[in-house]
Inverse folding.
């Protein structure tokens, strides 16, 4: 696996994990904030209605609870909130909802004696639907409890808001990861992949015998240290290669000199052998010619020929002496080497 890919995977995992944790915490904070707002609105609505019902009974025909609920409920709620009333025995007495169908809430009785002045809050789930409920006592004249009032707010908008927040956060995370991933790939390519490629090419050149190859500094400290060591190794190899070439050249010259000396020694030995082989018969020929020359008269026609034989024999003897002198000189020179 490439270094850039590995770095991208490490950072991607880190960013994804951090984003997931941050997203979870942010969504939980958003949910708590929204639920806190719902609680505040439900408490305000419940207290406002309880204050109105302090002077009116829910069954009083002069009290239009649906109209009252429509007036005090937040306009942005869809579906709108619902009211449920309980009589003095804690049994459900009636429902009210402003321009909406009644919510599918379970039937339940409450104990007014255990219900505190601040009421009781709970979350209700019906299938995929969720609701927030607050029940507060309705105090009549003389501080007598006439019953209880329950305000039920659907959490559909909260879930939609959280879903939208989650989608936006996921989109932001994907864009962030892709952007950072692209940036990481570019940075890794400029600062890691390309310098390493140069180092690989330089190593290949060194392996192919090109010891003059050098790597330029990249600006990355660790890679520059590796490049410096590679350049130093290349210099050492180049120096050793030059020494080896000089040694081989000197060895070649020495071998040439030795071969030349061997040739000269062979020529000297051959010349010496030839000189000895030629010199002995030549001395016999020269001696016999001189002997015959001393016996013939001055007017003899053969005297000139005998003189020529003696003269040429002396000339050949001079050449043989030179060959012997040359062979002895080369042998002395060879011994000095």
């Amino acid at each position: 696996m490439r270094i850039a890919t590995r770095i991208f995977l490490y950072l991607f995992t880190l960013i994804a994990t951090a984003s997931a944790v941050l997203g979870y915490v942010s969504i939980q904070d958003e949910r708590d904030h929204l639920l806190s707002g719902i609680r505040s609105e439900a408490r305000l609505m419940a207290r406002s209605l309880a204050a109105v019902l302090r002077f009116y009974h829910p069954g009083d025909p002069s009290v239009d609870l649906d109209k009252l609920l429509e007036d005090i409920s937040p306009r942005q709620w869809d579906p709108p909130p619902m009211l449920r009333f309980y009589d003095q025995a804690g049994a459900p007495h009636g429902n009210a909802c402003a321009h909406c169908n009644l919510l599918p809430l379970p039937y339940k009785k409450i104990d007014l004696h255990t219900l505190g002045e601040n009421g009781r809050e709970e979350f209700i789930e019906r299938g995929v639907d969720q609701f927030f409920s607050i029940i507060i006592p309705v105090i009549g004249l003389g501080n007598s409890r006439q019953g209880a009032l329950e305000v039920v707010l659907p959490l559909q908008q909260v879930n939609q808001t959280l879903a939208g927040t989650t989608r936006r956060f996921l989109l932001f995370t994907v864009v962030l990861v892709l952007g950072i991933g692209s940036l990481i790939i570019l940075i890794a390519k400029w600062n890691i992949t390309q310098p390493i490629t140069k180092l690989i090419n330089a190593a290949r050149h060194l392996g192919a015998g090109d010891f003059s190859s050098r790597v330029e500094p990249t600006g990355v400290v660790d890679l520059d240290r590796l490049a410096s060591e590679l350049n130093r190794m290349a210099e050492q190899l180049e120096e050793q290669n030059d020494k080896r070439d000089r040694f081989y050249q000197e060895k070649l010259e020495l071998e040439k000199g030795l071969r030349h000396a061997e040739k000269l020694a062979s020529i000297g030995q051959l010349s010496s052998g030839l000189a000895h082989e030629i010199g002995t018969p030549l001395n016999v020929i020269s001696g016999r010619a001189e002997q015959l020359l001393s016996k013939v008269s001055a007017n003899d026609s053969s005297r000139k020929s005998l003189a020529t034989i003696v003269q040429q024999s002396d000339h050949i003897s001079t050449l043989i002496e030179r060959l012997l002198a040359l062979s002895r000189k080369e042998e002395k020179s060879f011994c000095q080497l």
